[in-house]
Design goal:
The chain has 332 residues and is an alpha+beta fold. The protein has eight helices and 18 strands.
């Protein structure tokens, strides 16, 4: 259980102002466009298999039935994670937050501003950590909190290994992300689509890319369309707000780059894995199960026996995708 506040200024007679900053600006974990299932219990998910060729020449009385169809069964089983924080009341009273905190028989009564500070900071960090867990978890990980489930990247790599239709378009190096090479890099992912994925409308698909890819694509747009031929001067003068390749939007997973740098290393001496990662898919092919959104309802309280302000919080989460032939990956 982490401290709610590890370093805060001391209270004194000098007037002060406090400025808060969100840790991340990422979407809520439910805001990625994936299917969202509420529930704590293990579930079995069924994905239909389509029939193959049904047609046959009819040259006589009778019928020629064909085999095929059915369902693929996959399991999803949320695991629980702890996101609790606590703070010794003495530490709070001795800081700028202590000006309104009562002592004596009213010790522990929390005023709205400090409750808001604790809950806002806790939820912000919890959302960031849930995104780490969703994408970076791998049951073979040496990082305990990332070893409870297999997340997006681990599942997709498993799909490639099992030849379930998930396509691996190959590596993505830093050189591949240079402006002169960026189009070819995105095109190879685009061209690797299965017929089924290619038939999907562009507004049904997304590129989920890491920050290294996202900002390299922005550089490509600005440099290649802002000089020489000067096709899109607005990319330079106004910047690039939303980005698309062949009509499919790029979603920036910048928390992945951060999480890899913090928690995922390889080799000896340890080095960070390359963050250059691309997924082309339909968001509805991916399912996230959590025990609802109740984890956002936090109620910090004062524990008199321990003389601590506590804010317990947990959430259960797991991930699964449906059809392998609706996924193309590159760079991992």
């Amino acid at each position: 259980m982490a401290d709610a506040i590890t370093s805060i200024p001391a209270n004194n007679s000098i007037p002060y102002e406090v400025f808060y900053q969100a840790l991340v600006e990422n979407p809520p974990v439910q805001g990625l466009g994936f299917n969202f299932i509420e529930g704590q219990a293990k579930k079995e998910l069924y994905f239909n298999e389509t029939f193959g060729l049904l047609a046959s020449a009819k040259t006589a009385c009778g019928w020629t039935p064909k085999e095929g169809g059915g369902f693929i069964k996959k399991a999803i089983e949320p695991k629980e994670f702890d996101f609790s924080v606590a703070q010794c009341y003495i530490d709070l009273v001795g800081t700028i937050f202590g000006e309104k905190l009562p002592n004596g028989y009213k010790r522990g009564e929390l005023y709205p501003e400090i409750i808001d500070y604790i809950t806002s900071s806790q939820l912000d960090a919890t959302n960031r950590d849930l995104l780490y867990i969703l994408f970076l978890s791998d049951k073979t990980s040496t990082e305990p909190f990332l070893a409870q489930i297999d997340g997006v990247y681990a599942k997709l790599l498993e799909g490639v290994a099992n030849a379930d239709g998930t396509v691996d378009a190959g590596g993505v190096t830093d050189t591949d992300l240079l402006p002169d090479n960026m189009y070819a890099t995105m095109k190879k992912v685009w061209d690797a689509q299965s017929r089924r994925l290619r038939r999907k409308a562009v507004n049904e698909k997304k590129f989920y890319v890491t920050a290294s890819v996202y900002y390299a694509f922005a550089d490509y747009l600005q440099i290649k369309t802002g000089t020489n031929t000067i096709v899109q001067t607005s990319n330079v003068t106004d910047g690039v707000q939303k980005m698309y390749f062949n009509g499919v939007e790029l979603i920036n997973l910048d928390f992945v780059d951060e999480g890899l740098a913090l928690y995922v290393t390889t080799g000896s001496p340890a080095s960070t894995l390359s963050p250059n990662r691309i997924i082309l898919t339909t968001p509805t092919n991916h399912t996230l199960q959590m025990d609802g959104s109740g984890y956002t309802m936090i109620d910090p309280y004062y524990n008199r026996d321990e003389d601590k302000v506590k804010s317990p919080l947990s959430a259960k989460i797991d991930y699964q995708y449906g059809f392998g032939d609706l996924n193309v990956i590159a760079g991992f």
